[in-house]
C-alpha cells in the first residue's frame, strides 16, 4: 500500500478513536452524577458493582493486546507479560501480519498500550486467566462475511496487508471504546473510574 493511502487511513482511524474517547470524557464531566472533582471524605475507592464492569473490559483488552502484539511482532502476551495471562491458553491462529514499516511500529505501540490497560485493570480490581481467543484469519473472515451478509471471495485475511489489518483493528477497539463509554456512567468508585 502506498504511503499516502496509509496516512489518510491512519488519520481517519485516529480521528474516529479520539472522537469516541472525547465523547466518553465529555459525558463523564457533564453528567457525572456521583464522582466529584475531588474525592469526598469517606469515599469508597472501589464499589463491588464496578468490579464486574471493569473485569468485563479485561476480555477485550486481552483480545486487543494479543491481536496487536502478534500482528506487529509475531508473539504476544505470553512473551511480553506472561504474568498477566494468569495461565490462560495461548490465542488460536494469531500471527505476524504483512505490515509496512510505519503501520507495524504504530501497531506495536498500540500493543504495549493494551498491556498497560490490562495491568491497570488487574491491579485495580483483580483479573482472571486470559480466555481462549480465536484470532485465526478464518475467524475474521467469518466476521466480515457476516457483516457483508455474503461470503467474500477471496476470504478476508486481516494479516495479508496493512489495509486489511487496520480494517480489522478498527472493528476490534471500536467495540472496546463504545463499551467504556457505555460503562463509564455506571462506574461509581473513584478508583475504578480513574482507570
Ligand atoms: C476459529 O474460528 C474459525 C472460524 O470461525 C473456525 O473454523 C475454527 O474452528 C476456530 N478454531 C478453533 C480451534 O475453535
Please provide a written account of the structure.
It is a single chain. By secondary structure, the protein is an all-alpha fold. The chain is 65% helix and 0% strand. It has eight helices and no strands. The longest helix has 28 residues, at 3-30. The chain is globular. The model is unreliable at 20-29 (pLDDT under 50). Bound molecules: 2-acetamido-2-deoxy-beta-D-glucopyranose. 2-acetamido-2-deoxy-beta-D-glucopyranose (NAG) binds next to helix 6.
Topology summary:
Elements: H1 3-30, H2 48-73, H3 77-80, H4 82-85, H5 101-125, H6 137-148, H7 162-183, H8 190-194
Helix pairs in contact: 1-7, 2-5, 2-7
The structure holds 2-acetamido-2-deoxy-beta-D-glucopyranose.
Pfam families: Ferritin_2
Protein name: Desiccation-related protein PCC13-62-like
Organism: Papaver nudicaule (Iceland poppy)
The number of E-state strands comes to 0
Uncertain regions spanning at least 5 consecutive residues:
20-29
Helical residues, percent: 55-70%
Described by the principal axes of the CA atoms, the overall outline is globular
Order of helices and strands: HHHHHHHH
Tally of DSSP helical segments: 8
Strand content: under 5%
The N- and C-terminal alpha carbons lie at a distance of 37 Å
Q: Supply Rg.
A: 18 Å
Quaternary state of the chains: single chain
Indicate the structural class. mainly alpha
Let me know the largest β-sheet: none
Kindly state the mean pLDDT as a whole number?
80
* Bound compounds: 2-acetamido-2-deoxy-beta-D-glucopyranose
